[in-house]
Amino acid sequence: MPQDMDELRWQALLARDAAPGCGPFLYAVTTQGVFCRSGCPSRPPLRRNVRFYADAAGAEAAGFRACLRCDPKGERSAIHAAAVRAACDLIETEEAMPSLAALAARAGYARHHFLRLFRDITGVTPRSYAEGVRARRLQAALAAGERVAEAVAGAGFGSESRVYEDTGRHLGMTPGAARRGGQGEVIRIAHAGSAMGPLLVGATARGICFIGFAEPPEALEGDLRARFPKAWIEPAGEDLAAWVRQVAAFLAEPAAALALPLDLRGTAFQRRVWEALTRIPLGETRTYSGLAAEMGQPAATRAVARACARNPVSLAVPCHRVVGAGGDLTGYRWGVPRKAALLAGERRAKAPIAE
Fold first, then answer.
1. What are residue 200's DSSP bridge partners?
2. 319 is known as an active-site residue
3. How far is CA 301 from CA 12, 19, 122, in A?
4. What is the pLDDT of residues 267-310, one digit of tens each?
5. Are 256 and 315 spatial neighbours (Cβ–Cβ below 8 Å)?
6. Is the pLDDT confidence value at 84 over 50?
7. Distance from C-alpha of 214 to C-alpha of 202, rounded to nearest angstrom
8. 313/11 Cα distance (integer angstroms)
9. What DSSP state is assigned to residue 313?
10. 148 and 175 in contact (C-beta within 8 Å)?
């Protein structure tokens, strides 16, 4: 293996994260006879005792065994994931929320251990997951035209008051508005040009609920209408002009964070991810796994990636600052070249001005 690749992997080992250009790898410790993931929480070994391998088969062929702590072959992770999937399936099918004790006993784990596993894998607690299931049931029933009282009871809520107490948490709007496909919601929209093509900003009375760009105006508006098929959508006139100028300026030269009032509607976990995205400084990036770790849920990488993909207000919630494990830009709703351009502009804005 080239010496420079060894050095890249060593730096990634010390940082407990992937480094651009080094790709996936495992490392073995000669004094312990084990091989580990690059993010193993064990204390870093001495450099002279480390050997690098591309996969588990290579490490095992050299006589090393898998670390019990970081599970580099994913065997324990697969068992844990299967137990959590079974618990999710039970929550999906049961009318009432199963207790944490019942779920843990069925999976064969202590209650607190199972709670940690469930939260690490799904990104939420069993109770939050069950609330999401009930919200989906409620949304589907309302969309099918059921009366509010019947839909609320059928979804497993004890009473309508529990839904109306926190409509944003369950639906992002009142049950009546959800039943009507967003009817009664007023969304003002403004089209504009930008350095990256057509731009559309949509806002409710509470703040911006949609930002889209780089597609034909009719496609951008279709995206918004798909979210609220029966909402009243009207031109904003000059009402959104200042906000639109801020977004257009950011697309041209992202010199500062966008400070805009937002109307974000998503699950509790999605909102946590979106809040974490806003804390990534201008000109910096995070990996999906790194962002999950910063949130205190290192096993929720996939859930974090899904939440990033569901972000309705690009730029204001900067999902473009999240990259793949090897530093790859990966997919981006508005195109990978535009993601690269945004990140390059942010790096220029952060770089010190030469004397």
1. 191, 212
2. yes
3. 18, 17, 9
4. 777 888 998 998 898 888 999 988 988 888 777 888 888 889 88
5. no
6. yes
7. 15
8. 35
9. B
10. yes
Residue 233: exposed, middle, or buried by beta-carbon count in 10 A (0-12, 13-18, 19+)?
A: middle
Instruction: Pick the closest to residue 263 from 198, 332, 168 (CA basis).
Output: 168
User: Is 209 part of the annotated catalytic residue set?
Assistant: no
| CA nearest to 226, candidates 307, 145, 304, 312 | 312
* DSSP states of 241-260: HHHHHHHHHHHH---S----
Instruction: Return d(Cα 258, Cα 143) in angstroms, integer.
Output: 34
Query: Encoding tokens for residue 20?
Result: 């651009």
Amino acid found at 109:
Y
Q: pLDDT, tens digit, for every residue of 132-145?
A: 676 666 655 555 55
**Tokens representing 249?**
């300026």
Residue tagged active-site, from 36, 40, 88, 209: 36
The three-class DSSP label of residue 155 is: coil
Tell me the pLDDT of the chain averaged across its residues.
80
Handedness of CA 39, 43, 48, 50 (dihedral sign): negative
Give me the sheet containing 26-29, strands edge to edge: 50-53, 26-29, 34-37, 65-66
- Of the ranges 149-158, 196-205, 222-231, 261-270, which is most confident? 196-205
Q: Which residue in the list 40, 67, 209, 319 is annotated as catalytic?
A: 319
Tokens of 29: 């410790």
